[in-house]
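quick one, two chains, predict together pls
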Amino acid sequence: MMDIRLEGIAHSYGVTEVLRDVSLDIDTGRIVCLVGPSGCGKSTLLRLIGGLERPSQGRVLQIGAPPEGCLNPLTYIFQDFALLPWRTVRGNVSLVLEDHGIRGRKAAPIIADVLARTRLSDFADALPKQLSGGMKQRVAIARALAVNPAVMLMDEPLSALDSQTRELLMDDLISLWTREPFTAVYVTHNLAEAVRLGHRVVVLSRRPGRIREIVEIGKPLAERGYADPDLDRVQQHLWSLMREEARAADEELIDV
Amino acid sequence: MSDARLETRPMREVRFRGGGFQPERRRWIGVAVFVLVIGLVEWGTRAGWISALTLPRPSEVLATFGELWESGLFFAHLVPSLTRLAVGAALGASVGIATGMLIGLFSYMRAALVPVIAAIFPIPKIALLPLFVIWFGIDEGSKYALIAFGTFTPTVVATYGAVDNVDRTLIRMGQSFGLSWLSIVRKIVLPGAMPGILSGLRISLAIAIILLVAAEMLGAQYGIGAYILEAGSLYDLERLFAGVVILSILGVLVSMTIGFMEQRLLGWRT
């Protein structure tokens, strides 16, 4: 059992304040979705949680020990998949095991298991250039599963995919979760994804990002479907929260 | 009745304006160009509109080449040259790749070495031959050094450029999975930089062949370069050209080898 707690996180890039006073608890076995207008710092927040960046203020705490056999407690899934193009599907999964001394015969059952769970067993020897976008992201998910993470940090994992592939992959994620609940922080700008996958949806304001509202969705993941009227109501509510800010954020000048 | 028959307004097909700007494989064109140019020169020298002083007759160059082969001198010249090329280029390229990696990976190395490289890149290495002779001796040492030095600088520049171009998201991915620094360099940076390093090698190996001739200017009895220089000082155009043709063939072979390596090592590219 490992929870994550964010305490008074604030972050700036130079004079640009990106996040202000964000405090949040991420509980084991639940998916927390972070939504907000573009440039609200939701991806930055995710990089802070996983230790790829240091917050200017506040701290990120791991509470409790990661589960046994966990090789990499905080594991990312990236928007652009981040697969090594020169390694096969198997090689890409093997990459994250090698540094833990798991290779050859010890790695084979782990790789076979995660590829089976992501329905990629037949493509173990394919190179990324041969795969469709949806398959590439499934390889990235398989790679994340291989290290048995305590928390999955998903940065717009479906945004680079077309809408049909996105639906299919959402179903895949839901069935992965129902078989074996995992903890995840899921950043997205797509409200439909947030209401399908999130147990909690955290709405951030525009820059500097603060938590505006946290919406709990009680309906079990397995019962949520495509064009679900209950979810539509939640989505309407989320959009009403974000609409004006999204417009204002869109008209803001980018100062780099 | 179809709509087309009802239509009375003027009709024409949409003009195609796409296509092009995409290299395609055309076999034998390269060979045909060689055959055409050589044939033209042969015809010109025979017919007399190219004088024997301007260009040697290709068939006579071939005959000279035949003599060289039969006398056994061909390998006597080729083997020392190939050795000098292999040793010098291997030395220069490997030190160059290592230096380029250091510059690409460490900001202090970059700050310290990039100006130095920029300062030595434009020096004509041939001008330094006397210096190399003093430093490394008139024997093979100075020849290796000249070729190595000439291949070193372009390899460094190509390598650190290639390291700079490695996709940073892949490196962040490696860090996020807790890979060690060495693993990231070995498994992500080096293979990611390989395309740039290989195209840099194409240039630096061509430079190595150019410098081979220069290296054999001093203290070489045998070698393609020595052979060409001797023929040149005697104005023996047939022998000069026979030597030049050997260098050209060497260049084509090197380029083909790198092309083959690219196919083997970079098959993952889209």
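The mean pLDDT of chain A is 90.
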